[in-house]
Design brief:
- The complex is a heterodimer.
- Chain A is mainly alpha-helical.
- Chain A has helices spanning 2-32, 43-88, 90-105, 112-119, 123-147, 151-158, 164-202, 207-216, 220-248.
- Chain A contains nine helices and no strands.
- Chain B is an alpha/beta fold.
- Chain B is built from eight helices and ten strands.
- Chain B has helices spanning 50-58, 97-107, 111-114, 119-132, 148-160, 178-195, 206-212, 246-264, and strands at 8-19, 22-34, 39-43, 65-70, 73-74, 82-85, 166-170, 198-203, 215-219, 226-231.
- In chain B, a hairpin with a 2-residue loop joins strand 4 (65-70) and strand 5.
- The chains are: A mainly alpha, B alpha/beta.
- Chain A binds chain B through residues 150, 152-153, 155-162, 166, 170-171, 174-175, 177, 249, 251-252, 254, and chain B through 58-60, 77-80, 82, 84, 86, 88, 90, 92-94, 103-104, 106-108, 142, 144, 158, 162, 168.
């Protein structure tokens, strides 16, 4: 029991200590160098701002979280389908990979004004940007997972007369699952970046929108409070996916 | 039984395939037949197309010329009558030993349609096979917790679980150490005695061939042809002690000479 406790502590303590140290250095640095609060507020000031504006921050934070999760969900659905397609078919790979690269090379921030023209200001541009920014890693990883299935494993199924779909279900999909989860952790954090970027200029709510309003009113500490809330939500979503990964694809991490 | 249609028959089979843009002539006019219930080993120098023969029989690959027949029917694709084990155990790493053994039942009809309903029964059958190969208590282990020999035992169970008429073995013990390999000869002999399916096994280990087979077919170098077909008239069940008997050693020598001739022979 105490060993179990010690193990848990050894997992939880290092990141907590690291984050605490980061804030401590920031706090002391600002204080020692006498940095103006208007330029870079100390974390304690940002925390005070958070406590003061809580009621205004939370609805916006939930809006950003919702936007991110919807965008990510679309990215997962389309990313898995397209990834499976280019992972399976050499023709699809040759045809679509350059297109994917081209799309991914476009700065997503540059698309925000375009989406505003198309869809107006609101939730939709933010969802689309979150989707676009998180789609690529998912598609590429799923494709890699499926394309690298050992031919021996495929032969086992083929010699039983399995259909292509059987092979995908029994071998391709489970084989790609660890790749998929690895990409989810990247995609989840990217999706937050996407929604906040879009909210900066194309939304009436959300943390991004809150930050724009705050900076216009020179409430720099509130801007930083917003950033911290986004960071915290990023960690939370990451933790959810990491836990799912440990549960569902434990076989890929046999030597913990 | 004596005049029955052979279980497996190759008629003048040739195979030419392209590798890196060059044509490789793997098999030339190979003909032989295997009666129902026989255990036949195919031996030959490496690269003589032994494995290719199994891929043809299993329907994973079509012949360039000639015909491959199972029960008198021309093979045109993968067969559900066939169970196959490879040199690598090739277990699915995300499945336990038991789930790996059950895999063919999830794919092959009629088991596939009944899989949900008869799952209990199928699991019992899988457990029974695992017990025969000495893996009692390992059913719920994932492959990476099993040794190479244990993984190969699981692969044998998987090849047999859907009660195939024909078992194709592609150097199934080649990657194992000598002790494990010889132990598994006994395991395979037991499985075969219990099931009496037709076995076609590829090997380059002549002692293995003599120990297990009723007949050993010796192939020449590429392009592979049948150069010798030796019946092994030794009583069964054979034991490891038998491998030191003069008759056993004679058979191994005979085969050894055949292969030696094959390697020095068709070089020109």
């Amino acid at each position: 029991m105490s060993q179990e406790l010690r193990y848990r502590l050894s997992v939880i303590a290092p990141p907590v200590v690291a984050i605490a140290l980061f804030f401590l250095v920031w706090e002391l640095g600002c204080w020692a160098l006498r940095v103006d609060e208007f330029v870079l507020p100390r974390p304690s000031v940002a925390l005070a701002a958070y406590l003061k504006w809580q009621h205004a921050i939370w609805p916006n934070a939930l809006q950003t979280l919702m936007t991110t999760i919807v965008g990510l969900a679309i990215a997962i659905a389309l990313g898995v389908v397209l990834g499976a397609l280019i992972g399976y078919s050499a023709l699809m790979y040759r045809a679509l990979y350059p297109v994917l690269i081209a799309f991914n090379s476009i700065p997503k921030a540059a698309l925000v004004p375009v989406f505003v023209i198309w869809f107006g200001v609101g939730t939709l541009p933010a969802i689309l940007i979150a989707f676009l920014i998180s789609f690529f890693p998912i598609a590429v990883n799923v494709a890699t997972g499926i394309a690298t299935v050992e031919p021996e494993l495929r032969d086992v199924l083929r010699s039983l007369g399995a259909s292509q779909f059987d092979i995908f279900r029994k071998v391709g999909f489970p084989r790609a699952a660890p790749y998929f989860f690895a990409s989810l952790k990247v995609a989840a954090t990217l999706a937050f970046v996407g929604s906040v970027i879009a909210e900066l200029g194309a939304a009436n709510s959300g943390i991004g929108n809150l930050m724009v309003i705050a900076s216009a009113r020179f409430e720099v500490s509130l801007v930083f409070a917003g950033l911290m809330v986004v960071a915290a939500m990023g960690i939370a979503l990451y933790a959810v996916f990491a836990a799912l990964e440990r549960r569902l694809v434990a076989w890929a991490y046999r030597s913990r | 039984m004596t005049h029955a249609v052979p279980c497996v028959e190759l008629r003048n089979v040739s195979l030419i395939y392209a590798s890196d843009g060059k044509a490789v002539h793997a098999l030339e006019n190979v003909s032989f037949s295997v009666p129902q219930g026989a255990f036949v080993a195919i031996a030959g120098p490496s690269g003589c197309g032994k494995t290719t023969i199994l891929r043809l029989v299993s329907g994973l690959m079509p012949a360039t010329r000639g015909q491959v027949l199972i029960d008198g029917q021309v093979v045109r694709g993968p067969q559900k009558k066939v169970g196959m084990a490879f040199q690598n155990a090739s277990l699915l790493p995300w499945r336990t030993a038991l789930q790996n053994v059950l895999l063919p039942l999830e794919v092959v009809q009629p088991h596939r349609a009944q899989f949900r309903a008869r799952r209990k029964e199928y699991e019992e059958e899988a457990h029974r096979l695992l017990r025969i190969v000495g893996l009692d208590g390992f059913a719920d282990k994932p492959p990476y917790q099993l040794s190479g020999g244990m993984q190969q035992r699981v692969a044998l169970c998987r090849a047999l679980v859907h009660q195939p008429e024909i078992l194709l073995l592609d150097e199934p013990f080649a990657a194992l150490d000598a002790f494990t390999r010889e132990e598994l000869w006994g395991v395979l002999q037991d499985l075969w005695t219990a099931r009496r399916c037709t076995v076609l096994m590829v090997t380059h280990d002549l002692r293995e061939a003599v120990f297990l087979a009723d007949r050993v077919i010796v192939m020449s170098r590429r392009p592979g042809t049948v150069i010798s077909d030796v019946s092994i008239n030794l009583p069964r069940p054979r034991t490891l002690a038998d491998t030191f008997s003069p008759q056993f050693v004679d058979y191994v020598h005979t085969l050894y000479d055949c292969i030696g001739a094959a390697r020095n022979g068709s070089t020109s």
